């Protein structure tokens, strides 16, 4: 009986993991589709622009504020190098502010060494995609709130924390940040992509979990038929109460 209950429990677990991976595949498909569709149209941002879908392509006119920049720590490049994302406040021409992710810069010889983030504060029109602030897969505790001097190094800050740090509440409601297009000037390494694994990876994991469940079921049935045959019960399945 114990063997049967254990097998059933493992089967439920394995099938549940497979179904979870199928749900993750569907979620990732939605993200990847949204990222691909983001450049189908470009919307102009102004102070009254409401919340926009994630990855919507936008343009905004205004100027950078190079004095209050933020470095988002623990960001890695596509080839696995450690570094920062550079967030620079952007004053909209009609009032209000955006945070522009100007791209990735490598870590210096130490975290005490800050990269050169100088950017002209002349008027310009820039383009990019709306996005959320970077967030950890698993948050272990809560890091200390970021504080000056600038440029401030912050680990996965929230919108509220950045608003407090920058002493400004008139941030655009349209998006948390804008990912600066790769062809725009005054940026760093920009290899934007939908976050997380592609859907096919989650589908492969689901197949593995379902395959393990099927293998376990076959092993259980074959083992019990062999034991039943050895006990002289043709075609039967026995349950050993000692197990």
Share of residues in strands: 15-25%
Number of domains: 2
The biggest sheet, with number of strands, parallel, antiparallel or mixed sense and barrel status, is: 5 strands, mixed, barrel
> Largest beta sheet: what is the strand line-up?
2-4-5-8-6
Which structural class should the secondary elements be placed in? alpha/beta
Q: What overall geometry do the principal axes of the alpha carbons give?
A: elongated
Individual helix count? 3
Instruction: Catalogue the unreliable spans.
Output: none
* Amino- and carboxy-terminal Cα gap: 6 Å
What is the succession of H and E elements? HEEEEEEEHEH
Concise synopsis of the structure shown:
31% of the residues lie in helices and 22% in strands. It is an alpha/beta fold. It folds into 2 domains: 1-42 and 197-243; 56-180, no CATH class.
């Amino acid at each position: 009986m114990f063997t049967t209950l254990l097998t059933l429990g493992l089967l439920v677990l394995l099938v549940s993991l497979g179904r979870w991976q199928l749900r993750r595949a569907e979620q990732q498909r939605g993200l990847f589709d949204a990222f691909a569709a983001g450049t189908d149209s470009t919307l102009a941002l102004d102070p009254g622009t409401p919340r926009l879908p994630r990855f919507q392509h936008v343009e905004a006119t205004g100027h950078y504020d190079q004095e209050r920049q933020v470095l988002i720590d623990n960001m890695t490049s596509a080839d696995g190098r450690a570094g920062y994302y550079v967030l620079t406040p952007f004053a909209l021409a009609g009032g209000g502010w955006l945070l522009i992710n100007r791209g990735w810069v490598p870590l210096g010889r130490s975290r005490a060494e800050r990269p050169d983030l100088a950017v002209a504060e002349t008027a310009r029109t820039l383009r990019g995609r709306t996005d959320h602030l970077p967030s950890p897969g698993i948050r272990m505790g809560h890091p200390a709130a970021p504080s000056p001097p600038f440029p401030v190094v912050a680990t996965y800050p929230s919108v509220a924390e950045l608003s407090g740090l920058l002493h400004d509440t008139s941030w655009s409601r349209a998006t948390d940040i804008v990912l600066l297009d790769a062809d725009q000037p005054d940026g760093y390494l920009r290899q934007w992509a939908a976050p997380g694994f592609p859907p096919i990876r989650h589908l492969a994991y689901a197949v593995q979990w379902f395959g393990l469940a099927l293998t376990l079921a076959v092993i259980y049935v074959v083992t019990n038929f062999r034991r039943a045959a050895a006990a002289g019960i043709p075609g039967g399945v026995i349950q050993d109460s000692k197990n």
